[in-house]
Amino acid sequence: MPLIPPPFPESRSAAKAPAAIAVEDVSFYWPSGAAVLRHCSLEVGQGKFCMLLGNNGSGKSTLLRLLAKLLARQTGSIHMSGPVGFVFQNPDHQLVMPTVGADVAFGLVKEKLSEAQMKKRVEDALSAVNLWHLQRRPIYALSGGQKQRVAIAGAIAQNCQILLLDEPTALLDPDSQIDLVRQVQALVKSRGLTALWVTHRLAELDYCDYAFLLEGGAVSDRGDPQRLKQKLKTSYIE
Ligand SMILES: Nc1ncnc2c1ncn2[C@@H]1O[C@H](COP(=O)(O)OP(=O)(O)O)[C@@H](O)[C@H]1O
Ligand SMILES: [Mg+2]
Questions:
Q1: Are the CB atoms for 24 and 75 separated by under 8 Å?
Q2: What gap in Å lies between CA 21 and CA 63, rounded to an integer?
Q3: Which end of the chain, N or C, is less surrounded by CB atoms within 10 Å?
Q4: How far apart are CA 153 and CA 151, in angstroms?
Q5: Phi then psi for 84, rounded to 5 degrees?
Q6: What is the whole-number distance in angstroms between the Cα of residue 228 and the centre of ligand 1?
Q7: Which residue's CA is minimally distant from atom 18 of ligand 1?
């Protein structure tokens, strides 16, 4: 009797990319009892650039903080497939050293690297965000967009696989805004990173692979960024 081939051998390779971020049935309450997230679930595939939208106060920052373990979840499960880097809205709350190179190196101190290893990691990370030439530049002399790229370089230097960015363009002018979103799009492609980016600016949806809308404490819509862009154009104040 001939051997029966395994069913659908090709289905394995066609399988959906494994999730880098998996949130299942997460609820979160402040000590006052106010619920922010209610049975919230979402998945972000490995190597994808996803955006998260929602009105002010809808819980976007709370969700990102839960993913980064800056807050502790109360119910449900959260799985992150690798090390996580966080980029805040205001880089002045994040950059702590006087110069670009020193700031990126600061995140590596705990790794006890040799001087040469440290230098290489810092230079590689700064090259990835096109700031290699600004290593000695004081942080105060950078533009807002450059500061955000230093924050991203810090995460790359630490080999973070997942970037969480909480309205990283909110304080930027329109040109720097588009530069930054393009930069992250390119990093996701070239380094296989996964990014979850919170925004209010619908123009940014042109650069991502997938989008989520957070409403009433859970994801109320998800999918093609262009479809969400059209839908929100009428209901959303940029
Ligand atoms: N530290 C806090 N203590 C109590 N309530 C908070 C705190 N931070 C945020 N909130 C409340 O949680 C809700 C969600 O906030 P947030 O996640 O910051 O929303 P978003 O980022 O979507 O604007 C809001 O009602 C906000 O007022
Ligand atoms: Mg927020």
A1: no
A2: 12
A3: N
A4: 5
A5: -115, 135
A6: 24
A7: 61
The ligand 1 atom at the shortest distance from the C-alpha of residue 65 is 17
Q: Which domains does the chain have, with CATH numbers?
A: 17-82+196-238 (3.40.50.300)
Q: CB-based contacts of 108: which residues, under 8 Å, 6+ apart?
A: 118, 121, 122, 157, 158
Which ligand 1 atom is nearest residue 198's CA?
A: 21
pTM for the whole structure: 0.91
Q: Could you tell me the distance, in angstroms and rounded to a whole number, from the CA of residue 64 to the centre of ligand 2?
A: 9
Reply yes or no on whether the pLDDT at 10 is more than 70.
Answer: no
Q: 158-205 pLDDT, tens per residue?
A: 999 999 999 999 999 999 999 999 999 999 999 999 999 999 999 999
Q: Tell me the pLDDT tens digit for each residue of 125-134.
A: 999 999 999 9
Q: For residue 88, how far is its CA from the centre of ligand 2 (angstroms)?
A: 10
Residue matched to tokens 């959303």: 236
Q: Is 132 exposed, middle or buried (0-12, 13-18, 19+ CB in 10 A)?
A: middle
